[in-house]
Design goal:
Blueprint lengths: L10 E7 L3 H9 L2 H4 L11 E6 L6 E6 L4 E11 L3 E6 L13 E11 L2 E9 L8 H26 L1
Antiparallel strand pairs: 1-7, 2-3, 3-4, 4-5, 5-6, 6-7
């Protein structure tokens, strides 16, 4: 008898914003700090600022009230205004690990005058492992990304 391992599903979200793809990409990246919820961070000090550095090889991270800079990952693809691919290097225990790679891909597709469909995917979640803690993290991340993307949507629609 063989055993089968079920790979955790990627987190996928789709939303529409009232903005061109160029504007949606700009709000998501350059405007990242204006919409990223200050309640979502790693580390012990409250989040002061959230940053995505432009271009492949840039980093994304949080700057904290105590002066700490906590890395979240790096930019793997930078294709304005159509696509952004980020390495998410935060473990299921909410700590940065440079050797972990899960991917956050965001695609921006024009669907009408001044409207953009945003397709979001966070994949590779099986790399968190198969512990109960990893399962809880994946479940909480699904809701967390929903909240985070609602915040982005409100900023892009403004």
């Amino acid at each position: 008898m063989s055993s089968t391992t079920i790979k955790p599903a990627a987190i996928r979200k789709t939303l529409t914003v009232r903005a061109t793809p160029e504007r949606a990409f700009e709000v998501f990246t350059a405007g990242f700090d204006s919409w990223w919820p200050k309640t979502h961070y790693i580390g012990s000090s409250p989040l002061k600022r959230a940053v995505i550095e432009p271009g492949v090889g840039g980093c994304w991270y949080g700057l904290h009230e105590d002066g700490a800079q906590n890395l979240w990952g790096d930019v793997l693809a930078w294709e304005p205004p159509a696509r952004l691919l980020l390495a998410w290097r935060i473990t299921g225990e909410w700590a940065y690990d440079p050797d972990l790679l899960t991917e956050v891909e965001v695609r921006f597709t024009g669907v009408g005058e001044n409207q953009t469909r945003v397709d979001f995917e966070h994949r590779g979640l099986e790399r968190f492992g198969d512990s109960d803690a990893a399962d809880r993290t994946r479940v909480s991340m699904d809701g967390g990304w929903g909240t985070i993307l609602e915040s982005f949507q409100a900023a892009a629609n403004a």
